[in-house]
Fold this sequence. Notes:
By secondary structure, the chain is of the alpha/beta class. It contains 15 helices and 21 strands. It folds into three domains: 9-130, Rossmann fold (3-Layer(aba) Sandwich); 146-380, pyruvate-formate lyase- activating enzyme (Alpha-Beta Horseshoe); 384-470, CATH 2.40.50. The chain has a seven-stranded mixed sheet with strand order 19-20-17-16-15-18-21. A six-stranded parallel sheet has the order 2-1-3-4-5-6, with helices on both faces. The protein has a three-stranded parallel sheet with strand order 7-10-11, with helices on both faces. It binds iron/sulfur cluster. Iron/sulfur cluster binds next to α6. GO terms for molecular function: 4 iron, 4 sulfur cluster binding; metal ion binding; tRNA-2-methylthio-N(6)-dimethylallyladenosine(37) synthase activity.
Amino acid sequence: MPENSAPRTYQVRTFGCQMNVHDSERMSGLLEDAGLVPATEELADVIVFNTCAVRENADNKLYGHLGQLRPVKEKNPGMQIAVGGCLAQKDRETILQKAPWVDAVFGTHNVGALPALLERARHNATAELEILESLEVFPSTLPTKRDSVYSGWVSISVGCNNTCTFCIVPSLRGKERDRRPGEILAEIQALVDDGAIEVTLLGQNVNSYGVEFGDRQAFSKLLRACGDIEGLERVRFTSPHPAAFTDDVIAAMAETPNVMPQLHMPLQSGSDKVLKDMRRSYRSTRFLGILDKVRERIPDAAISTDIIVGFPGETEEDFQATLDVVEKSRFATAFTFQYSKRPGTPAAELEGQLPKAVVQERYERLIALQDRIAAEENAKQVGREVEILVAAQSGRKSDQTHRLSGRAKDQRLVHFSVPAGAETPRPGDLVTVTITEAAPFHLIADPRDASEYRRRRSRAGDAWDRAQADSCGVPSAGTAGTVPGKGVLLGMPKLPTPVR
Length: 500
Ligand code: SF4
């Protein structure tokens, strides 16, 4: 970079699952380590696509985005475009053949190579392609730029040893690789030291954690060890697999106070025949049995799920079995998907692919059922006192209603107002209120006066203050040059004014 020139800007565009969101935090961290800064405008000097191969048409969408950037790049010759993630791992050189204006292509196993590939592409004026077949460095050892100061993601494993026939993950992310517990706990401690009060343990199949180093109870031990980390208030994890969900995990959840009463348990189908065709090794009875055991030990647990509608060969009877399990499961939320062929997966080759109209009609019935259940379950929350971890506010809704938002311990979304005379919380602070209204996808708490509202300042709120001050170039509290008593106020963004 020439002297005195402004630093190059970057933008990471993320598609797909939480694993990708977390990988994108690493890409941002790597680019910032290399001296780039986040772009504040639409156009950045470096644009990275972190792609997903799970959805049909994911490739068409990517090439559409890349096509839009072609004329932009022609006008801005210094601009660089990189493509990473699952689709890059799968399509490799095809990306460079179809979009030769791309500068770098990297896979899911070598996220850490991104800055070097961009630099090499710039220096050599050629496109760089680097895909590894397996992981060389565990991605969590790479620098990360977290999206949130109050919560963080921690990878405990990557890859998956299962072979679900609809899933591309095993071929793109490889066999399960587990991090050692000491390394995971050290990363959690570092996040907590940095102000986080919530962590989510992340893996394609978290409860098989330990398979690589031969400890079947490693996941429950890890949850219990999280309970010993001082200052860590909320521990979550995603995603477990019903087949390997053992009683020791339920016991650890119930007996570790900072493990939250929330569980994401992917059902996929309620039909045993479809589960068999999906190569999911549990059956509906086992699935429902897990939910019973969880609710017996953790009565207020909010359970969410993933369901695929219209898997090849799914009959009306099979679909009815899914509706029956959904009715019995009383999910707080369900992520519902219409089956679509994913090239490279065994299910894409199966006979009995269903017409779109049939899938759509079943999907709508499932949504209607789940929306009713979600509304009924949320209605039971009215009158309950909940503690909310206040989120960074965004979106129009909060501007219009003047309510702030956050998540209850069970991960339910709560919009709440701050009564007259009460202190407005910072993102990362904790607020205790009583639920006054319910809708299928959120809850509302409008305390009548300050006596119905409690705010707890948290270390995460302090970290938010510091991050805001630092991002404005203002020294934060506790750093040299702080104005006594006022150090963190300058440059603070205004939170929406609460209803008075
Ligand atoms: S458990 Fe199945 S769906 Fe989940 S990542 Fe592994 S193969 Fe894919």
